[in-house]
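Bench log, entry 3. Co-assembly request; chain sequences pasted below exactly as received.
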Amino acid sequence: EAGVAQSPRYKIIEKRQSVAFWCNPISGHATLYWYQQILGQGPKLLIQFQNNGVVDDSQLPKDRFSAERLKGVDSTLKIQPAKLEDSAVYLCASSIFWRDNNEQFFGPGTRLTVL
Amino acid sequence: ELKVEQNPLFLSMQEGKNYTIYCNYSTTSDRLYWYRQDPGKSLESLFVLLSNGAVKQEGRLMASLDTKARLSTLHITAAVHDLSATYFCAVDPFGNQFYFGTGTSLTVIP
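Structure output for the full assembly:
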């Protein structure tokens, strides 16, 4: 079974530029998550989708971040314009709730450096 | 505000020794997950604990859950260098969202 795929793996941009990340979840997983992980910290949830609807985006900085999950499968996360403090690893995860188990499976992440 | 605290935050231990990492959380949850993260890598699932008293073991690691005390432990037996990593616990009290702990950075010294 293929895992969660993400691209690109690394991205370096200058502040005020825009950037987009792509995620393909595990087949059949209805729930998709985007996390931001700053060095030395735990993952912080940015947005959660159930199929193609948003469940929670309360911690998404909506003035600069946007995300979509068209057709309930792949998802993209965009930052425009980027700030220095956006330098982090962006993790995508997916899950399927089954018998009380909501285990999340994580992709390899995209390491973003904003100069 | 839901809090998930791990201690210690940093742990340096010698090979062959035993130690326990603690995960305390502030609200009722019957679901708790442990993950491992190697430097520069993503999170790898270690254990899924879904009920009070649940105990899971894999190799030198054993995880347990006490929902009444709101506490999970990750016990390391006879540590080896390969266990060096950061370990995260995550609670899922409502069945729809993870709340991650602060992480414990483990270094096993030969």
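Chain A has a mean pLDDT of 94. The first strand of chain A starts at residue 5 and ends at 7.
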